Amino acid sequence: MTALADALTAAQAKALAALEKAYVRGALDLDQFQSQMEMIGCTDKVDQDLLIASLDTLRQYGQTEPAYTEKRQTEKPTQAQISYVEKLAGEHGHQVPDLTGATRAQASEVISAMQKGTYDPAKWPDIPF
């Protein structure tokens, strides 16, 4: 991943979090919310529909949207993270780890360790590599 790709991923996540807040509190209607998601590159229709259904449920029961840090702890790795782990593993002679079951935060840790040259698969017993 490049610095630009990292910045884009971070900006998209924060922009999406802002859109979610606005949608849940009623500042954006459905069409505006979907349009804004498209504009920032969140274009997967299945994911959009699931997100909207989740936010509608939160709205219906008077809850707020999940905090950005809360989402980062539970979301699965992005395709960009998976691709970058594959690239780094190849460059550093590691077997490509299986990120199934890992979180975005854990994938970021793996990326950092590979970049620093300190990656050790034995340090990741909770992730089914």
Topology readout:
Elements: H1 3-24, H2 30-39, H3 45-60, H4 68-74, H5 79-92, H6 104-116
Helix pairs in contact: 1-2, 5-6
Order of helices and strands: HHHHHH
* Number of structural domains: 2
Give the CA-based shape.
Answer: elongated
Could you tell me the radius of gyration in angstroms? Answer: 17 Å
Main β-sheet, in a few words? none
Classify the secondary structure makeup into a structural class: mainly alpha
Quickly count the helices: 6
Helix content: 55-70%
**What is the percentage of strand-forming residues?**
under 5%
Q: In whole angstroms, how far apart are the ends?
A: 21 Å
> How many β-strand runs?
0
Mean pLDDT: 84
Describe this structure in words.
- The protein is an all-alpha fold and 129 residues long.
- The protein has 2 domains: 3-73, no CATH class; 79-123, no CATH class.
- The protein contains 6 helices and no strands.
- Helix 1 (3-24) runs antiparallel to helix 2 and helix 5 (79-92) runs parallel beside helix 6.
- The longest helix has 22 residues, at 3-24.
- It is elongated, with a radius of gyration of 17 Å.
